[in-house]
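Open question from group meeting: does this chain pack into something compact, or does most of it stay loose? Before anyone orders reagents, we agreed to write out a predicted structure and look at it together. Recording both the input and the output here so the notebook holds the full record.
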Amino acid sequence: MPSPSADSPCHQPRPEGPLAEHSRFYQRLHRRYGADLPLLPPGPPVLATMEQAYDALRARGSDTGTALRVVRQLVMERLIQLDCDQQAPLAEVTRAVTELAELALDRACQQARQELDERHGAPRGPDGQPVQLWIIGMGKLGARELNVSSDIDLIYVYEHDGETAGNAEGRGRISNHEYFARAVKSMYGLVGDTTEHGFVFRVDLALRPNGNSGPSAVSLAALEEYLQLHGREWERFAWLKSRVVAPRDCIASTEVQALRGVVLPFVFRRYLDYSVFDALRSLHRQIRDHAAKRSAGHPERANDVKLSRGGIREIEFTVQLLQVVRGGQFPELRRRPTLDALPRLAQAGLMPQETADALARAYVFLRRVEHRIQYLDDQQTHVLPTRDDDLAWIAFTLGYPDCCAFLHELDAHRELVAQEFDTLLGGSGKKQCNGGGCGGPRAAAPPPPELETLLEQLPAGFRARVAEWRNHPRVEGLRDEARDRLFRLVQRTARWLAEGKVNEDAAVRLVGWLEPLLRRESYLALLLERPSVHEHLLHLLGAAKWPARYMLQHPGVIDELAGDALLSERFVVADFERELTVRRASLQSTGEDDDETLLNLLRRAQHAETFRTLARDVERRITVEQVADDLSALADSVLRITAQWCWSRLKNRHRESPQFAIIGYGKLGGKELGYGSDLDIVFVFDDDDERAPEVYAAFVRKLINWLTVKTGEGDLYEIDTALRPNGSSGLLVTSFEAYANYQQRRGSNTAWTWEHQAMTRARFVMGSDALQARFDAVREAVITSERDPVALRDEIVLMREKVRSAHPTKDGRFDVKHSPGGMVDAEFAVQYLVLSQSATHPELRGNVGNIALLQRAEQVGLLPEGVGTAAADAYRELRRVQHVARLDEAPTQVMPPALQAERDAVLALWLAVFGAGMGLPRRP
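Structure tokens returned:
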């Protein structure tokens, strides 16, 4: 990267006196406004002190435009002094310039509307209501990042079409459209015209709908129609930082929410959106081409700290691209200021923390250089000066001993920024992307072939499936760009197939997976931009059928495939709950936290985490037991978060925190959940308030609805509450006292033996520590109660026979779960041991799972040596076989002699526990 004035001596003498005095702009300000400088109170300029100066100037007789222009000159003088001689923080400078713009626009709007109201009356909406005007700041104004010589990019939007009320005589009525067009013209004169005092800000309206050919002010309805029908990808980046900046009394009004409801869906799409990569590449190419033309014959212009390679714009593009791609699903990324967004991107795993820190340092450095360039002559430029003394002055004001040290630092920052940006957009950057936002290599490639030519390049099975696209309406209906992407993906898949990276099942399933998603072109862009995601997707599709079905139901989860960390990590409860809390807070800050949005937020998070576990499972990075542990922990966490959110939104809640608990049974209680498992749960409360039964009943109904209702993102879990006291005929939520009495058989209404069998696997999922202690005591009392072992044995064997008869097998097949010697036999044997022996053997009281309990039963002498261990190993293998079969949607029945050793081990357990003649099945 070239350095300016490379042949000039670096060691310029440091100016004597305050450094600010070298600025020619600063000198002009003192000559012209020296007597006015005390009007701005001491210290960094802020809105309150600027208003004081403005009011003082107005009191002296200055009109609005003059007062605003003089305030601008006073603010600039103060900023040059604070920045150059006192090293003011960047945020102090950008805040001052931004608040100056907000003050100017607010005062200009007040005056323009007052004058127009006197002539034409106030604008009215369809129901005669007042109509608001919103001055929307775009770019750096919207993000509160204005530099000291910024344009202000504005869009004027008014609330409703209609007509003004007319003046005091009822005359002068004009349309709201004409009224606001005149208001914009008047405001421009007050802020943007150049007078003897200069201007307040240069005003640019080019970002408005239809650009310079569009009206200067548009109605909200017209804006919505434009964004929906004509909004272009690059405009999403422009609107990303948009903010209502004036008039001040409208900024916090409820009406502004309607504007937010139009803009947010345009900027942030519901699904991950990688189609913006090409749009940003095109936009950046135009900017670089323009910069190259400007610098042709003027080599000094190549040192533009904003637009040249490695400049400020490339940092902003890097941040905005990741925000637009992911901000629809992750609202915490929707931060306007660049320095606020960078740490959020790192926290979300979209870039390494060290990269975010380095880009932040580069951004601050380049912005401070930009300000010093502009302090020299108050010119709207970002190009380093060619005069050696000016360059040295910039170095001195930044704390460097000479310009050589400064230029070395500048080159280092720009090189880092350029590498990161090139890597993101698929250039020749050396660094590899972290798991979240990078585009794949996009070297110039020949256009893809037509379908018939493409088919000739494919192996037979894959070719036959792709050939079905000849008359496929969705394929025929694709835009040319989308069809090109689709065919490139097929070409890449065929290449990997030939190289042996993927199998043909995966390739064929990919076609079936893509077809329903062809209208969501962003998925084609995602796979093309990120070859690693494409390859991981194929591995999953080739491994089993159920992952393909899951990804078809929830296609957004495939973004989780980016990065190697996915396969090496495990589910972490604290991280999951913290991310959800942050996302909800982000939605609350923009007023988007309605029920439907939160329901979808929960579903996306749960689906993504389930998919992460699924990917690790299919790639054999975790065991079946670890899969169950992680899925169970995820369910616990979802129940906890959903209960908290539901309670906070319950209208008739009578206390801040509910005195309430969820008890898990079955697979949830035993931490043996699989993919798609129901949740067997019981709800209890411990609250003496007379309103409690009614409140908690409403709460549980709401909670079950939140967990089970299907939205556009699917559902969370199916809920089964049949194990509550009195089953389906009982209350949906029970007082803890009634629950305890029922389980401990106090009173006339008591639990059955099969319910006590279920209690062996019951687990406290969520609630207060005090309630957990009480539940643990009830569970222990139930499973250690004195029982007649013979009667207990007879009841359990009878129940086992009922279960077995409900799941018959044919042709002598062995069902790994229900057949004699299957998993249910082992589970019933464990339940009998727990209920009959835990009173004298405390080792059996813990809810530690069937495998561990079998091992403990043998260790304490309740099972013959080797029987418990063999049964535990058999149970583990049967679970694995069942798990693998379900993943591939295959039957869980096998023909003997398959799994004969495991079956024999479980039958030996049954014989040891229940004895001969107690339901021991005959072998087929």
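Observations to bring back to the group:
Confidence is low (pLDDT under 50) at residues 427-444, 917-924.
Residues 90-120 form the longest helix (31 residues).
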